Structures
1.
Amino acid sequence: MPSISLPTSPGPRAAKMNLMSFGTILTPFLGGPTQRINRLGTRWSMLVSMPTLMADPDGRVWANALAQAVEAGAVMPIVQDIDTGSPGAPVVSANVASGSILPLSGMTPGYQLRAGQFVSIIHAGRRYVYAIREAVTVGVGGTISASIFPLLRTALSTGDVVEIATPMIEGWIDSAFGWDVLQTPMIQIPDFTIVEAA
C-alpha cells in the first residue's frame, strides 16, 4: 500500500525538524579525550502542530488521513521558512554511490540553493530528505553540484527526481494516534511526528 498523502490545506500551525543521528560519542573510562563515531543512517523527522479545525470537512479529512497513515505511512510537504521559488525540474545528473555531493541538472540558471534548505530525492520509489550544507548558485547550463547533509543513505541513479520546490518527507507516524472531538463542531488534531522510513 502506498503512503497516504496528508492534506495540504489547511496546513500545519507549526513544524519542527529534528536530525536523528545513529552515531555515538565514545567516552574513555580513564578520562581521556572523547571521540565521535558517525554511522550511516542519520535521517530527519518532522514534528507537526495543527490548528484547531472545523470538524466538517477539514478536521474529519485530516483525522481520517492520519489514522490510515499509522499503518500505511505518510507523506507531506516539509514546512520551511523560505520561498523556494522556481528551481526548474531538477534530477540527479550522474550515478552516485555514496558521500555528500549531489550532482544536479535541469535546474533554472541563477537559482540559489540556500544553506539549510531541504530537498528530497526519490530513488527506487523511496524518498530521502537532505539539507543543503552551504549556499550555491546554479550555472548557465542548469547544472550544479550541491553539498548535502547527512551522508547519502543509498546510491543514487542518473535521472532520480529531486524535489526542491516542494520537498516532501515520507515515513511513519506515531503508532498510537487519536484526536479530540470538542463540544463545538471542532476537532483538535494532536501533535504528530513523521519519521523518515528509509
2.
Amino acid sequence: MADTWLIVGLGNPGPRYELTRHNIGQMVMDELAGRRREAFRAHKANARVVETWLRPGAAKLVLAKLNSFMNVSGGPVAGLARFYGIEADHVIVVHDELDIPYDTIKLKTGGGHGGHNGVRDIAKALGTADFPRVRVGIGRPVGRQDPADWVLDPFSATERRTLPILVSDAADAVELLADEGLVSAQQRFHAPRA
C-alpha cells in the first residue's frame, strides 16, 4: 500500500540502553508518538507499535520500536512489513550514524550499511537494501575509545542540552520524507544550517 509507511526506530531493549547513543532511533519514535498523543502497544512481530496518521487525510504511519537487540532487527522488521503489507520502499529506518557529526541528519535510500549491524540485518531480512533511512549523526569517539562501546554510552552532558532538538528534527525529517519524498527531505536537512 503506497499510503502506509512502516517507520522503525532502531535501538536495544531495556532500561540499560534507553538513553544511549545507539537508541536515538527509538527516541525519535517516542517523539513521533508523543506528537500524536499515542502509546505503543505490543505486536506479535516482537515489537511495540503505534498505528496513526501523518495528519488527518494523509498517509498512515506504523511507528515501531523493536523488542529485539539491534543486531537482530531484521526479523521483526520483515514480520511487521509482511503483517501490514508494506514494501521495502515504504519502510523508513531511523538509526544512529557514527560517520555523521553529532547534531546532523542525513537521509538516503539504499546503499551500504556502513558497518551498522542493525541496518545490515534489516537489508538481509527484507531481501533488499533499497529502503529509506533517516541517519542521525552521533559522531565518532575522540581518542582511543572503541566505537562499539561509544554507541552504548549515554549522551554526554553537552550533547544532552541539544538532544531534544536533534530528536525533534529527526522526527520532522521522517514526516517530511513520508509526506513529500526523499528529495524534498534531503533538500531541507542536507542544506547547511543558517
3.
Amino acid sequence: MTTAAAIGLGLVAAVCFALAAAYQHRAVGRHVDRTADSTQLSARHFWALVRTPRWLAGTGLAGLGAVLHINALRLAPVAVVQPVGVVAVPLSVLLTARRTRTRPPPVVWAGVLATVLGVFGFVLLTARSSRSEVPVLRDILVVSAVLAVICCLLVLAAKHAPGRWPTLLWASAGACAFGLASAYVKALFLLLGARTPLTSPAVWGTGCVMLAAYVLGAWMVQHGYLAGSPEVVVGALTVTDPVVAVLIGLVLLGEGGFGLPTALGMILCAVLAVAGVVALSTHHPQVTAPVPDITHPPAPSHPSSNRSVS
C-alpha cells in the first residue's frame, strides 16, 4: 500500500515538473539573449528571471513537485520512486506542441515511447527491492566526491560542446545532482529513523550535500533550458536522474539483491531509454531549427516602405 502511495505521489510530482519545465523554459528564452555565441546564464540574467512571474510560477511548481517527491521517497525505496518521473517526458512534448501549435514528427514520438518504455521497464525490474540500509559516513563522502567530479566534467564539456550537445550535457549534469539529492533524502530518512543524533557528521553532512545538490542542479537545468527545448531537458533528467539515484541506492543504501537476469534487463532498459532521449534531442524541431543571432539584427527597411499612402 505504501509503495502504491509513493508511486502516486511520484506521478503527481512528475506533472508538476513538466509544467515547471514549460514555464521556466519560456521565461529563460524571453529574458536571456540567446545567440549562437551566448549560451551561458550570468548573474544579471538570474536577477531578471527572479523578477519574472512566469519563472517564479515554474519555480513554485518545481518546489511543490520536490515536496511530493520527498514524501514519496519516505514511503518507498529510491529505485521505485525515481523512474516514475518519466511521465513528464510525453507531458512536456504535449505542452510544447500545444503552445507552439505544431505537431511533433513521428521520430520524436518514437523517442518518447522508447524513453517511457525503457524507464518503466527499469522501475518494474527494480520495484522488487523493498529494503534499504542505513548508510555510513565513509560511503557518503565517497559517493559525494565521485558525483561532484562527474558533474564538473559534464559542465566543462557542455561549455565547449557544439550543436545539440550542450542541452544534453547541462541537463545530464543537473540530473546527476538531482539523483544524488534524491538518494540523500532517502539516506536522511534512514539515518533519522535509526535514531542517529542530529549532531552526527553523517546527518548534517548528508543534509548539506543534499541542499547543495538541489541548488546546483537547478542552476545547471536553467542552462539546459537556454541551450535547447524543454522536452530534451526533461528527457535527459528523467533518464539520468533515476539511473544515478538507483546506482547510489545500490551502492550506498544496499537496495540491491538483483540476480544476473534482472541486472541485464536493467541495462537493456537503460540503453533503450538513453536511445530515446538521443532521438528526441536529435530530431526535435526546436533543436534542428537554427538559433537566431540577435547580435546581428536585420537591416531596417527603407523609409519609403513604411510611408503611409494618403
4.
Amino acid sequence: MSEPWLVVGLGNPGPGYAGNRHNVGHMVLDEMLGRCGASLVSHRSRAQVADVRLGVLPGGAPGPRVVIARPTTYMNTSGGPVGALAQYLQVPPERVLVVHDELDIPYLQVRLKSGGGEGGHNGLRSISSALGTRDYLRVRVGVGRPPGRMDAADYVLKDFSAAERKELPWLLDAAADAVEMVVRDGLTAAQQRFHAPA
C-alpha cells in the first residue's frame, strides 16, 4: 500500500475561536471531511485524525490515502502534534501538507507552495521546528490584510465579516479542491490551475 499523505489544518481549539480567520485551516478540513463522509477521532499525538481515501482512480481503484489531522493544541504549538503524527505514520516532509490562513494573499485567493519562510506565522514556525525542515507543502488560504491600523494578530483572531461569510463557502471549496489536486496530480499541476489569472 502506498504511503499516506498527512494533511493538517491549522487553527485554535474551542468554540470561541471556531469562526476566526486564523481557523480557516480547520474550516477547510471540515469541507474535506464532509466530502469523504468521515469524522475525526482522537489520536495520542494530541490531534484528531481521519484516515480516508480521496475519491476513486480511473478503473475503480480507491484514491490516495490521506490522514486528515487537526491538532488539539493551540496554533503556536502545532508542531508537536504534526511532528508526532509524521513520525508515527512515517510520512516524509514532502508528503506533509499544511492548510493555513495567509495575510499576504487577498481574500478568496488560494496559493500553493513547497518550503519557504513562515511569514511570521507562528503555527508554521512551530511545524518547521518540529519537522526539522521548511520543505513541506502549504495550501495558503487568503484572508487579506487588516484594515487601517488594526494589528495583524487582532485581525486573524476576529471572525470573518458578514460580507466575507457570504463568500466563505466558495473559498473553502476552492481550498479543499487545491488540497485534493496537490495529492492527486502534484504541486506543479495544482499551481498551474490555482495560480492562473482569473
